[in-house]
Design brief:
By secondary structure, the protein is α+β, with helices and mostly antiparallel strands. Helices cover about 30% and strands about 20% of the residues. The chain folds into two domains: about 10-165, no CATH class; about 170-209, no CATH class. A hairpin with a 2-residue loop joins strand 3 and strand 4 (about 100-105).
């Protein structure tokens, strides 16, 4: 997976996806409302849809739905498409992703902009599945099996705009999250609780020298 970096122009910094809502037709607005799980009324006109979508998008639990691809992600955000689950009968409900006390409900199958830390959390959510590598033989009647690691929530990364600050001084988990990310940057994986404690102790000891 390659991160495509985007330098936002001044115009991109000033405009957001919500600024283009008035340019959408009623059919696109209905589709956007459905994606955002907005219960639209039959008598709603374009203004009602625009107001409802803006209100929904301003909630901290909603990622920013992409209406205009010409506008890159805001600084510190990644544009992704969370894949739909092809499993028969799967409801494909939005995926909940929490980082530093902020929980996002990320819909599947559409382009959305989310904070980079949330994208990294999705990227590091792994599950292990047992796969048969070889059929049964006289030496191995049961066959040969191997654990394979997969992303729990596969997604397509479209672009990233660097920057942004996501520290939350009122959330005690922020410091731990930052330390865990630094550990992951060094070792390529997130630490266990014990490893994080040792990492923090080593960091404090080094600072004291």
């Amino acid at each position: 997976m390659t991160d495509q970096m985007i330098d936002n122009s001044d115009a991109q910094d000033e405009r957001s996806q919500l600024d283009v809502l008035n340019d959408l037709d009623i059919a696109m607005l209905r589709k956007a409302a459905k994606v955002l799980n907005i219960q639209a009324q039959r008598d709603w006109d374009k203004g009602d849809f625009v107001a409802a979508i803006k209100a929904k998008q301003e909630q901290k639990t909603a990622p920013e739905v992409v209406f205009d691809n010409a506008l890159g992600p805001k600084p510190g955000h990644a544009r992704i498409v969370l894949h739909r689950d092809p499993t028969p009968g799967h409801k494909n409900s939005p995926v909940q992703c929490g980082v530093n006390g902020r929980l996002l409900h990320i819909p599947r199958g559409i382009e959305v902009d989310i904070p980079i830390p949330h994208m990294r959390a999705l990227e590091n959510a792994k599950s292990v599945q047992v796969r048969q590598q070889q059929g049964s033989t006289r030496e191995n009647p049961s066959g040969i099996y191997k654990d394979e690691e997969h992303m729990s929530y596969p997604f397509q990364l479209i672009s990233i705009t660097p920057g942004g600050k996501f520290e939350n001084a009122t959330d005690s988990r922020t410091t731990q999250a930052i330390a865990a990310q630094k550990f992951a940057d060094v070792f390529g994986r997130y630490p266990t609780g014990g490893e994080l404690a040792k990492w923090n102790d080593a960091k404090i000891n080094n600072q004291a020298k």
